[in-house]
Amino acid sequence: MGRYRDASGMKTIFSGLAASLTLLMAATTQAQDTDARADALVKQMTQAEKLQLVFGFYATPSKKDYMPPAEVISHSAGFVPGIARLNIPNQWQTDAGLGVASHRTMEQPRLRTALPSGIATAATWNPEIALAGGQMIGNEARLSGFNVMLSGGANLLREPRNGRNFEYAGEDPYLAGIMAGTTIKGIQSNHIVATTKHFALNDQETNRHGISADITENDARQTDLLAFQIAIETGQPGSVMCSYNRVNGTYACENDWLLNTVLKSDWGYKGYVMSDWGAVHSTIPAALNGLDQESGYFFDASPYFGDAMKEAVADGHISEARLDDMARRIVRSLAADGVLDDPVKGDRGAEIDYKAHANVTQADAEQAIVLLKNTAGLLPLKAKRIAVIGGHADVGVLSGGGSSQVYPYGAPANGRILPNEGPNDFPGPMVWYPSSPLKALAAHSRARVTYADGKDLKAAVRAARGADVVVVFATQWTGEQIDVTSLNLPGDQDALITAVARANPKTVVVLETGGPVVMPWIGHAAAVLEAWYPGTSGGEAIARVLTGEVNPSGHLPATFPVSEAQLPRPKLDGSAEDQQARVDVDYRIEGSAVGYKWFDKKGIKPLFPFGYGLSYTTFKLSGLKAQAVDGTVHATATVTNSGARAGMAVAQIYVSGDGWEAPKRLGGWAKVALKPGESKTVEVTVDPRLLSTADGKAWVLKGGDYKVILASSAADPIATTTVHLDGRTLDAAGH
Ligand code: GLC
Predict the structure, then answer these.
(1) pLDDT digits (tens, 9 = 90+) for 529-546
(2) CA proximity to 721, closest of 670, 653, 620, 674
(3) Within 6 Å (CB) of ligand 1, which residues are found?
(4) Which pLDDT does position 704 carry in this prediction?
(5) Which end of the chain, C or N, has fewer beta carbons within 10 A?
(6) pTM for this structure?
(7) What is the overall mean pLDDT for the chain?
(8) Coil/strand/helix, residue 585
């Protein structure tokens, strides 16, 4: 990640060495205190109390007459009874990474603020935005009575058709790790525990309970696991949620290599591993191989960490010491994250400052919107007659489905503004946030704005012909437990866009999608914006970008292919028939060459590359300098706003070494705001692991020359230089 200094002076952000050492010593002392505190608590526990901590309940009444414990917060994700005698509170667990979710059987769901999707926040390339978003949703979780927030989705976008890409942070491990980890940091600043999930390689939803993600250990460590490692280092989540899938044939929640070797030993992780809801398949293997807490019992075939755990301890299959370790990890995180000293105080939802929170989610959405095409400066809109078409732009903006579903103020109780759209069953309902881009555009523009819903193609074409400019909205609903069967826009939206754009070449397309989509109509559209799922203030955000009140500054966190034929797997593996079926997905095809690395390695030109994003102004990147500092690459460059209006640029630094999985890797970036004519110097220090290859827990940084590339996207190099580095072997943390 980069920092910047004003060109005029050396306003360095780094504090003095002395201050750093003091900070380090304080942190060490605090960690030792937390360890000691956890040890002392466990020592006071009875065995029954320890067993109580490792077994969680689902917190929503469900079919098969399951009734949760009385103390749960209704229609939420989970609940773990506390130990009042020791002042250990109940653990009230809420979903998820975009805000406080309500589980769908609730008649009157909790209405809360939703951030834009995780991939949208990643598209801001701005950790300050991620921090503010995490702080906001963590505040709403706390004031709703929750002290555990099941957030921090860090799975890599290996599979563009994955139904849950909207919850994650894109295809690059460094960008994903920093952005997901910073969100976690924001959430935990509210003295609640955040998780990172779904650990690991849970990169598609089809057959998610049965699939085996097959990959070499070193390739896993350089990609999906590196994203989690950086997220954990950045956000220090109190818990890691192991995932449904198998990794190389063994379920993630009983995978000794994944949990004990990599997470707890190599990375030194001191928090606790909770299962996903229904991801536990045993008692003894799961406990011995690293699982610390069974979550959401109701979903598992058996209460593996209930009485069976007690028996296993009594029989000596699971040692008292291991049970102590499970309990210690849990209370250690509760202590470290402030849950014990600053306990939540029940439902204080009335105290939530929704107005301030609306500004937070809107700022995120505004910086997440990516301007992909803008022929002849059609945007920002200057027309007098604007025809808005499709995408239910008259009612609101789309959100993703599943356990992360946040219900918005202003919608009907069940969130169903559009009763006939989307499935009733999970991951439905399809929820639209009542922030209408049409209404917002009319309010922010002096033009005459009309609307056609796009269902009647002829009417849409007539509307297009009768306007100066057309703005077509296109949506792609995605959700948990399902993947998209194609990257084409669903329904006949591709045909609608083509017809409208042919009728009026001044056509702007606004996409509300869960991730990458193909665009067969791209040649006909004059302008394209990717707005993702823009959250509960998304309509405002889109309108302000369209009218130019906001200069778009989003950059793609994932490659948009021309077609699925360009992907490592042109067809998705598995079938939706039987979610439990054992399907082997061979991630060895691409190995570490995920996303743009695959396209580079194969010499394939995507539709829009990773890191790509236009602006209403122009930027000049120059003055690349790089040198070896402390055994890694330190690069600086100058970013100048060479256009006529203020904007934010994302200067990207890629690095390239011999024998890697692909020609280059993202080494760092810096996002800077610049007035017209203003210049700033940006600096990036590359994490040495990004210059190395994984060799078990170690990282091997080969001696030699490394290319350093200054770029505005993965396909737009501006300047290159070379740095010589001495060879060395790094520990797991890259030291
Ligand atoms: C779900 C999801 C997970 C969620 C949990 C609780 O199935 O996989 O992300 O936090 O169960 O709802």
Answers:
(1) 999 999 999 999 999 999
(2) 653
(3) 77, 95-96, 150, 197, 276-277, 296, 403
(4) 98
(5) C
(6) 0.96
(7) 95
(8) strand
